[in-house]
Amino acid sequence: MKQGNYLLRKISFAAMTLLAVVVFNFFLFRILPGDPVRLIIHSPRMTRQAQERIQTAFGLDKPIWFNGERLRQGDLVGAFDTQFTAYLRNLLRGELGISFATRRDVSDLLKERVWRTVVLVTGGDLLAIFLGMALGLVAAWRRGSRLDMGILLGALFTWALPTFFLGIILLILARGHLPVGGMATPGLKPEDGLKYWLDVGRHLILPTLTMAIVYTSEYLLIMRSGVMEVLAEDYILTARAKGLSTLRILRDHALKNAMLPMVTLIALTFGYTVGGAIQVETVFSWPGLGRLMYEAVQKRDYPVLQGTFLLLAVSVILANLLADLLYTLLDPRVKAE
Amino acid sequence: MAAISKFVRNPMGVIGTGMLLVVVCVALLAPELAPYDPQARLQVTPADILAPPDAQHLLGRDDAGRDVLSQLLYGARVSLIVGFTASFMSMIIGTTVGLVAGYFGGRVGNALMRVVDFLMVIPDLPLMLVIIAVMGRGLLNIILVIGLLGWTYTARLVRSQVLTVRERQYVLRARAIGASHMHIIWHHIFPQVLPLVIAQAVLDISVAILEESSLAFLGLGDPTLISWGTMLNFAFERAISAQAWWFLLPPGFAIVWVSLSLILIGNTLDQIVNPRLRSHHLFDARRMVNIQNSG
Q1: Interface contact A272, partner B, CB < 8 A
Q2: What b/e string do you get for A27-56 counting C-beta neighbours within 10 Å, with b at 16 or more?
């Protein structure tokens, strides 16, 4: 019963956060000088039909979010027949507007690019989690030693390093040895099969490495302090008294117990990782969502900006919800909370 | 004071302070130190564009023939202004929210913490990006966005500390003899959370500086000012193919320098005011003693 309450609380929080983001995303872009939808409607490049399609799709003839006139007439449904509800309806249908720059559907652009960012973020994050946990464990075990100091200083240094600058350094260093931009060598197509995908893999090396190095320090520092806390527990003393080897103590006791907080951290870090992806994709021209956002900023392509932000925010919210649910499975104590 | 002598004996803290002082001096004395006006429209010949370092221009020239060293020195101002003011804003908001949520609790406290949870979930950089892209990229907007979004961690930290301090004997006694809430918060609780807040604020300065540079690198820096992030944006867009390392590397390492200095200071402060566990059971007791003496 209690567990049900906990899950319900988490799910309703996620739902409210989603709603808040949607509302924010609507109103932020409405305060622009020269409403973006109007801007595109008057663009001379639009055909008559396209203009009309947008006009009705966005309900531009209607008030922004509330129709007081209709309400006074006792028409409760009509009172909410507004631009805001039109926006919500479009959203549910996956309609996110049309790019100013390319005149393509924003949802098509996002669909085309989302997997490229997912691959980059997942690869970089997994590598960072592995490195961070391994180095953090060693540092905590050898606390105060020269090795620990070295690891710690390295972590602080990469923490101070802007993601995009690390990317630029790696780009300068690797030029000539590895591909430094784009997704595939021009001329190669997906039809080329294995050759193409290997080429894409080579293009992924530098962006993934940049992500991994930057986020390793985050995991490392938390892992280090987590393991240090665990190692001070009495059951470690017991395990040692039983004569267990250091390796077994670290693997079976310290690692397992210090992993729990990592689950939440991975979800929380996901928000930063997304920000990192924007920088990394910009540096290496990796054509994912981050690069899309950068280009949208340069060209003031507001519909694309709006759509990308929404997609990123929604994914991070859902990832956090997932982590919360996973946490209840892993740690029975949460249920009793 | 004990805390100060602890700080002075910590090499990380001292090195960090030294590094920060260098940047502060550079920022204050930029007009004195800079050999050229970084914004001046110069008479340039094609040879001046992206010219490598020489005796007149120690760090070479940028893509418009301007002196990179002068830009670098002036850039310190933007970073420090954004870092300190945004972090100060975050500190004030975070401390207030944390004090109220922790001390009064109840519905208001819960509602405040929901706002904190909400802001923590939204990815920072994309959010800042859309806000600045819509609101305009003036320095004030950049500071406001970073400051208004950066207080959540401080609020959580303060709240959890207040929850324990609130139940201590002297607070209960003060309440028993009829002290007002304001008096208790200000005289009994605030002094207890202040050291933690300051340590966090120092770390927040570096976060704010990194965020400003990321925004500027993505093309959303104040167009009227030269910041290290803006320099990197120009360098990356126009000089990366020319391999003009003198234009690419200095602003980047300047950012690393200042944020590393703040991280070193913040971490040292955190170690002093927030003493966590000092030992563990896989640790060699003899080595422990040495480390405590040297640390």
Answers
A1: yes
A2: ebbbebeebbbeebbeeeebeeeeeeebee
